[in-house]
Amino acid sequence: MQERTADELRQAALAVLRESDPAAKAALARALQARAPAPDPSLQLARPEGLPGRPDRPRLVPTLQVPKRSPFTTEGRAALLHAIAHIEFNAINLALDAIWRFPGMPADYYADWLQVAGEEALHFTLLHEHLQSLGFRYGDFDAHDGLWTMAERTAGDVLARMALVPRTLEARGLDATPPLQAKLARAGDARAVEILDVILRDEIGHVRIGNRWYRHLCRERGVDPITLYPELVQRYEAPRLRPPFNREARELAGFSEEELAYLGQSGS
Q1: Which of 50, 96, 248, 252 could tie 17 with a disulfide, CB 3.0–4.6 Å?
Q2: Is residue 236 part of a domain?
Q3: The total number of structural domains that make up the chain
Q4: What pLDDT score does 1 carry?
Q5: What is the reported pLDDT for 133?
């Protein structure tokens, strides 16, 4: 392992990833984005124990054990917002992990994922503040660990990570957000709708970043991104995507016509 540098992005991202307090992690991620130290792509970092840093609560349970709640009661709406906040907390971890874990990438790759980490931290902060206004806090409801599970599966290959986390799991948020906003609007929660506007706008950019680096890596390795993708889905047991799809948002995020056609076939 090489000597650690005093002010280096990938080492700093790993330190923030190890932080277990959610509010502190969000603040540190945003501060790191503002400071933006230069990355050292050649630095070899050993994985420490206990990744990612996270609090004792929420209790993590299998996906099907997380109850679905109606937004038409205060507690039900809080549970729904808690689920989104949990996704955003995990998204901070995923962005930081993409920075420290994969050496040898171009400097723009690390800058892109630093931007994502800072924006995910903002999303978590906005949601947590709104959750507190309803009388609840992050950790008050059970959650699942699906996003980080896929991060672990793809830990050995940056191409698989780009294919299956930002442009697959996180892209599902592009599809899910408009119906969720409609439901929250009917429940009278205008602030939640506003926050989801911010999240949807930024997530289009995050998925675009995933598409950018997936295609970059495919070109670098001389493989076809279209034919490789279903192979990766099968190899890493990624979840099957189901309609409806937010075609407009996915186009803005850089999915090609051929990729959108594949979605239609896989979701049928």
Answers
A1: 96
A2: yes
A3: 1
A4: 36
A5: 97
In this structure, is residue 183 part of a structural domain? yes
Q: How far apart are CA 44 and CA 3, in angstroms?
A: 9
Tallying the residues shown for the chain, one arrives at 268
Q: In the prediction, which pLDDT does 63 show?
A: 79
Burial class (CB in 10 A: 0-12, 13-18, 19+), 67: exposed
At 231, which CATH number?
Answer: 1.20.1260
- pLDDT greater than 50 at residue 3: no
Of the candidates 237, 236, 240, 260, which has an alpha carbon nearest to the alpha carbon of residue 248? Answer: 260
Contact 77, 126 (CB under 8 A): no
User: Rounded distance, CA 5 to CA 71, Å?
Assistant: 48
Indicate the range of 64-73, 77-86, 122-131 predicted with least confidence: 64-73
Helical ranges in 134-189 per DSSP H: 146-153, 158-164, 172-186
DSSP 103: -
In the chain, count H helices and then E strands. 11, 0
Is-contact 17 93, C-beta < 8 A? yes
Look at residue 266 in the predicted model and tell me its pLDDT. 62
> Which residue bears the tokens 């937010």?
246
In a domain, 143, yes or no: yes
Kindly report whether the peptide bond that precedes residue 239 is cis, defined as omega within 30 degrees of 0.
no
Amino acid at 134: L
> Over 60: is that where the pLDDT of 52 sits?
yes
What does the pLDDT look like over 152-197, one tens digit per residue?
999 999 999 999 999 999 999 999 999 999 999 999 999 999 999 9
Structural domain including 161 reads 9-40+62-266
Contacts of 3 (CB under 8 A, 6+ apart): none
Q: Is 1 part of a structural domain of the chain?
A: no
Angle at 233 between CA 244 and CA 151, to 5 degrees: 100
